[in-house]
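[Meeting: bench + compute handoff]

Bench side (C.D.) handed over the final construct sequence. Compute side (W.E.) agreed to return the predicted structure before the next meeting so the bench team could plan truncations. Sequence as handed over:
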Amino acid sequence: MQAIGGLIDDIIVLGIFIYFSLLVSGKIKLRQERQEKFDAMMERRGTLFKILAYGGTIIFAALILIGIFSFKDKSQNAFNVSTQPRQWTQADKDAMTKACIENAKNSYAKDPVKTTSLCECVTEKFTAKYTYDQAQELGKKSRQEQMDSAFILIKSCMNDTANTK
């Protein structure tokens, strides 16, 4: 579906370039006063505009043809850049831990060391249990379903920290 949207965008851009090409070549006429200004501008820079208009049209037509042929050729992976699911990065984990700590500060946490430890544990368990795409899907679910999933991880981490004492 995304490939079709990109193709439509290419066609719109090509249409704009064709319009300007026809305008530059004189096939399309403007209103009288604008036409006079346009003609005066074309006398000064007409060759440059013609080169840009026709060259741009040719380039975009070539890009559309390449897109059509790669769309028809199923062996190429032209529209799906990465077939691998997105992996959790350290930056993702750090952001999750930071958000957890901020949320805990606002609610119930008194000991910052325990809070940090608990949030790091929850982040590690969450990223081990869910892929990035699964986490995105979980984010679309209701608040209650999200809390149920998080509560299981929090409870597990609280048990882990209690057992390490």
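W.E. noted at the follow-up: The helical segments are 2-25, 32-72, 90-107, 112-129, 132-139, 143-163. C.D. will use this when planning the next construct.
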